[in-house]
Amino acid sequence: MKLDVDGPAAPPRSNGELIFEAPWQARVFGLAAAVVDTRFDGDREPFRERLIAAIADDPQRPYWDSWAVALEDLVTSSGLLTPDEVDRRAIGRNHPSA
Amino acid sequence: MSDDDHHRPIPPSPIEQRVNALEELLTERGYVPDGFIEDVNRAYENDIGPMNGAKVVARAWVDPEYKARLLQDGTAAIGELGFGGPEGHFMKVVENTPGVHNVVVCTLCSCYPWPVLGLPPKWYKEAPYRARMVREPRVLLAEMGCPLADDVEVRVWDSSAEARYLVLPERPNGTDDLSEEELAGLVTRDSMIGVARL
To answer: B12-43 pLDDT, tens per residue?
Structure first.
């Protein structure tokens, strides 16, 4: 997946390399690449628009958090998943006995 | 990744919970081809973390006092170079010598010293490595291209929430003239896991 190298949607880099501060950040990066590849025919623009919007919505939020918000927005607004089922699964993970 | 929950010193953050939920659901629907995320990550795994670990190793090779601090308190000495974070608490550094070879595994899941080594390689997370490195380390090391002489002791370190291990490889012969930066360029990810010698 092609990434912005500058502008608001560009990921944090050091010496040209992407910076991930935790494993989940690398996974959500790959997850977005998978959805763009399999469901949007490699067209990154719908995701990129949402990423720019997510960053604009909360400029202080860490970059990869906004990336995750943008991905959730993309998959729910395009009908791949419903917001409810994402909520339920995330809550279920918090309370494994539930 | 619920199988490593018991190994985590810190529970997943809310954003991490949502990412895990998204990953599970999208994978169940078939939108994430098998191995896709690993492939994307592999494209980066040699860029991000291992260079941090290589800098730690090179510093230890050129600075005996730093090396002593590193072996005494890995977390603090690695922090001196500016590396650390959620997956880098409780770092323990184990030193290879002519008579001792160290290798790191996580038998229960895939605990890994993220801030110094970046993304774990796929084989590190897979069952055969996790099981065989404990049961028959010499055989597996030889298969991975790292045969050891019979008189070399093998020490296998099992990563956990209590400690993440980093192997300090032996400095190769004939490198006396190299700078610290050039030395760092010789240090590979695999040598810091302990499945290769330099």
So the answer is: 788 999 999 999 999 999 999 988 888 777 66
User: Are A68 and B22 a contacting pair at CB < 8 A?
Assistant: yes
Q: What is the pLDDT of residue A15?
A: 45
User: How does residue A7 score in pLDDT terms, banded at 50, 70 and 90?
Assistant: low
Q: What is the 3-state secondary structure of chain A?
A: CCCCCCCCCCCCEECCEECCCCHHHHHHHHHHHHHHHHHCCCCCHHHHHHHHHHHHHCCCCCHHHHHHHHHHHHHHHCCCCCHHHHHHHHHHHHCCCC
The answer to whether the CB atoms of A17 and B44 lie below 8 A apart is: yes
A:B CB pairs within 8 Å:
107
- Is this model's pTM higher than 0.80 or not? no
Assembly ipTM? 0.86
Return d(Cα B198, Cα B189) in angstroms, integer. Answer: 11
Give the start-to-end residue ranges of the domains of chain B. Answer: 12-43, 49-193
Assigned CATH for B49-193: 3.90.330.10
